[in-house]
Amino acid sequence: MKYKLLLISLLISQAVFSQMKTGPFVFGPKIGIQANNLKIYNNTDDITNKLQLQYHAGLFARLNMGKFSLQPEAIFQIKGSSLSSPDEKHTYRYLSTPILLGFQPLKGLTFEIGPEFSWALNQGWKKEGIQQFGPDAKMDKALVLGTRIDLLDMFSMFSVNIRYIQGMDDVTTRGTDLNSATTFRNRTVQLGITYNFSEYYKWYKKHGVKKKKKKK
């Protein structure tokens, strides 16, 4: 068993440290899953909530400048949470534009930080007959902290993103007294995968189908 684990570790190490050189500009689609929750302030009613699993999908572009990178994105994502007492489901649909500054201390590993601006697509929405709500606020700003792992060799067109996103704005306000109203802020953990279109040519050149030379 330990030899199998050693072999797996060696394969992962090979995939992480044998990367082809990344070009100065990278772009492509991204998709992933996320675990959402709501941070509740002034929780006088003892509202409890639980994680809600959702997804995100969109496009990204990345400008590489040595050890630094700048990565803007445009993604559709769903945030929110399920509450109990009262029994409600909060489903917040957003068009989001994170803008991340990256620093690469090690080959294939990049730490990222930056703001995320989100526009609600279902502001004020309520599903008839069901306690299901959209956000009250039209816009939500958040801080993103994360890491990017650039897969290597034959998987060099893919990157894995792990992020924590802390909302900075109150997205839902209850009650009339602003000093004691219960307010919600989004919290999200994302796991995403990007596909680097601009790396395809280099990948195909190295790993694509080789034409057999005709014998004279």
Rounded to the nearest angstrom, the distance between the terminal CA atoms is 51 Å
Approximate shape = elongated
The largest sheet is: 8 strands, antiparallel, barrel
Number of helices: 2
Unreliable residue runs: 8-20
How much of the sequence lies in strands comes to over 45%
Derived from helix and strand composition plus strand pairing, the structural class reads mainly beta
The overall average pLDDT, rounded, is 83
Q: Order the strands across the largest sheet as they lie in space.
A: 1-3-4-5-6-8-9-11
Please count the beta strands (DSSP E, at least 2 residues each): 11
Task: Write the element-wise H/E pattern from the N-terminal end onward.
Answer: HEEEEEEEEEEEH
Helicity range: 10-25%
Q: Radius of gyration from the CA trace?
A: 22 Å
Q: How is this fold's topology laid out?
A:
Blueprint: H1 2-17, E1 25-41, E2 48-50, E3 52-65, E4 68-84, E5 88-106, E6 109-120, E7 132-133, E8 139-150, E9 158-167, E10 172-173, E11 183-195, H2 200-207
Parallel strand pairs: 5-7
Antiparallel strand pairs: 1-3, 1-11, 2-4, 3-4, 4-5, 5-6, 6-8, 8-9, 9-11, 10-11
